[in-house]
Amino acid sequence: MNKLLAFALAAAAIAAPVTMAYAHHSFSMFNPDVEDVIQGKVVRWAFNSPHTFMIIEDAEGVVWAFEGAAPPSLLGRSPQMTGDTFKTGDEISVVSCPLRDGRNGGAAGVFVTADGTAYNPSDAGCRANQRIANWPAWIAKGYKSLEEAKAGEGIK
Amino acid sequence: MKTKKVFGAFALGLLLAASAPVLSLAQTPTPPAAPAPAPAANPLAVAVVPPPRAFKTAEEHFNYLKRQANGGTRHTYESVPKWEGLWEASWNSIALRGGVSPFFVGPIPPGLTAGGVVAEGVLTPEYEAAFKQRREHMIPFNEQPYDRLTTCEATGVPRWLLEPYVREWVNTPDQSWWLNDLANETRRVYVDQDHKNIDGAHSPTGDSIGFWINDTLVVWTNDMWPADYFRGYPPFSNEMEIVEVYKLVTEANGMQRLIAQVTFYDPVSLLKPLSGVYTWVKAAAIEDAGYRMRHWDCNTGAQVRGENDTTSIRLPGEEGRSWHEMRNPDLPADLSGQTQSPDQFDFDTVFGQKPANQ
Q1: For residue A124, what are the domain limits?
Q2: Total domains in the fold of chain A
Q3: What is the ipTM of this complex?
Q4: Hey, what's the signal peptide range on this chain (chain B) (predicted)?
Q5: Do A65 and B43 touch (CB under 8 A)?
């Protein structure tokens, strides 16, 4: 019975936390149906409201920027992210939903660091975080997009 | 059998979470009108407590409650209710966070997506048509493509109530200061005072006055800019006035919630006054992580109004001067120590405005 009571209280508790997955602006500029992998080194991890930004430089010297959720939201995730989590020069793979206009940026979906740790920086603009358990292995296999990963893994 | 017990326990949990506020929050010290039933499916649902009788204006409503409370409770610094700490928006009955809304028939569209059936007979014909136009415009994008907050416009009071991000509530005997880190928007409630407006104009959050009934704070806000209830939701007019009734509630499971019963009065956009309820919960994880509200610098957001009236973002290296160049056109562009933080590259802060001569 004690277990059931604990479960009852847990049921109340799990409903209590409120995620902040809705930002102050629209996400219509991102394409949520596409998930691309961009790899490079961190130029700046901007841990500020209203949105975090991960700015990286790829091997060709191209700079990319990815918009993530606001700091209060990332503090409550596991692994937790703070302003010190990603350092300039760190190698990182970013899974993002690209800007529809083709510029070098997108909505951040998953960050995978060199040690294989996967972080969920996503706001409502990208649902790649729903596959956060898969992306480290998919990146290790060299997949550069969700489309490639699905084809390679036989996922329909 | 085991399954039945587990579901029974889960139901008990939902009941614990949902029932206490329904019983404990009233609009007046006198018995309130019978509360409408809360949606049973959501464990955080709170019943909407409408005004004790129908009022045509917020002024009538506010003054009635104040008369019923014999002018209200005069608090000292020691006795004024303390709502300190960090809070975040939780369930509400108006938009997004409750799965229900008076502006839609049945369940609301998931998230902020397009779709759903607009409820008729809530908004005036002009505003109902405008709302339907907004919903139609959302269909190709599956959400509202441009949000007026993109460039850090203030949310306005109805949206202040439910936006994400973090709140702080500081009550003193003469004023309550309610801070939202979203765009640094602060509401000030002047306690036991009359409305004042020497500005000759309305403002984003208007003018708020209030009075206490023991641990319950009643607030009347007027003179607001027109805005909206949320992205994808209806607009309201510059004649909107609002009565809010706030109380801190401790649930049976120990969880603290701040609950506001709210009535919107807007003869331009609403056929009749609209009542709803908003809630907030303690942001314990954020507090534990050491979060502190910082000034929200709109430039660091880099969001802009893009082509085709959609929200977009500016990328590093695109148009504009560096942050330092924007602020100090009279100083050397390579002056040392002028990035926002040490060890940043100059182009880190190229989120400045487009120069006027371009």
Answers
A1: 36-153
A2: 1
A3: 0.77
A4: 1-26
A5: no
